[in-house]
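hi! just following up on the protien thing from before. the input was this:
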Amino acid sequence: MRVAEVVGRVLHGHGARYVFGVVGSGNFHVTNALVAAGARFVAAAHEGGAASMADGYARTSGTVGLLSVHQGPGVTNALTGLTEAAKSRTPMVVLAPEATAPRSNFFIDLPALATSVGADFHRIRATHAAEDAGAAYRAAARGATVVLGLPLEVQSAVTEPWSGPAPAVAPTSATAGQVEPLLAALRAARRPVFIAGRGARAAREPLTRLADSCGALLAVSAAAKGLFAGNPWNLDVAGGFATPLAAELIGAADLVVAWGSTLNMWTTRHGELIPPSAVVVQVDHDPAAFGVNRPVDLTVAGEVAAVADAVLARLSAGSTGAVDAGTGGWRTPELAQRIRDHGRWRTVPYRDEGGSARAGAPATVDPRTLSAALDDLLPPDRTVVVDSGNFMGYPSMWLDVPDVAGFCFTQAFQSIGLGLASALGAAVARPDRLTVAAVGDGGFVMSATELVTAVRLALPLLVVIYDDAAYGAEVHHFGPDGHPLDTVTFPETDLAAIARGYGCDGLTVRTVDDLEPVRRWLAGPRTRPLVIDAKVCAARGSWWLEEAFRGH
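and the predicted 3d structure came back as:
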């Protein structure tokens, strides 16, 4: 059996069911081996789109994503999406053929490339093909983006066949000794807050039970939005997207426990959200994550769910000193009412800044009003995928999601143009839901080629373009200081017509009344993507981008 065939069989045997990519000579055989084993291949228009599709699929499905590209330029074309995945700790394996001869025009230093973006590197050996492929998949399943080098001469070599079975990836357990300091901190706290990050996406139930036992309020980083959806003590997103009430309550905490979150500058508003007097605990399966963004008082190494279960077991065993959620701490009926009344951005008043058509200027819609109207119109069972840009807070804050799988946030690398393809991967993972891709006009134009893929897939997809005819972040950051903006502002473009040219339905929206055709599209088969070109007002900058530029 050839090595390429063994690699395909092993990856499928470990659980790979979809592979995204663009096929060339270097990855032809391994991709076909995956398909022959039972995986489905999703052909993208460009390797950059394929990388984001694999990323979005992995985040939404909770399983390992698979990307297959050609050697050399196929790898480099995928680099931005690969970097976003690596920085997000997305479980993903990149099948990267290698031209190992230094004088080959396809030669690149793959190990150095992987290291440069924070990905792991593994290489297939002819004599250990099954072992190497399995190790790469298991490393990805533990939360790494893995570049798997497939030397061209090795792929065609003959090796021993593989028939499985694949070993399971065992979670890390937590011991009583490890959790004792955390248990003591919970006993002493009267105003605890849990902030769950991407490393806690699979731990809703144990974290909720533990929070109920100790009276903690619940919050998330943007990457884990939806994790505590429906919980009465859910403050939603911490950091730049936090509601005024969430910022107030987190700012009054005496204990903050970060579960699978590194408490980066976005989640903490550059450290200003968490009070200096609060005890800060970080729980993560990767000890290298401890204290990377700010000092912490306590650390606990272990899988989030295992640590939460271990602490809860100690509480349930009769340990004294735990807060009674019904009578102590700050879980009071009055606070529950405040969270119900003011815990969502929909309940925070604002002045609509949309403009009616006048003096030759066309009408525009306030992005908050647009987002609220869409939230009312779209089915609750949805997946919201948000690209990067000045607009990104509006769909993130005004569009509700049913659970953590319903939100995909492509912000780790702060690259625009990844959201549309990420949404296609999410739609493949959850075809039972409506996938909503929220993008800016700049990011849409960068990625519009993948509308070809969207039409081929015929999955329920709604693309909402927050179109301010500019790179809005730069406009609002540099404009107030009097800098010229000709390089970042553009003539109005009919993006809906571009979408129709790709075979999608297209709609231009200038007021919320223009959304009525969306209702009809929702009632239909939804097999043709609908692209909404929403002409949004650009009257003001967004505070979350002000936070972002502070980090530049």
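The chain has three domains: 3-156, 179-316+328-342, 349-550.
The longest helix spans residues 47-61.
cheers
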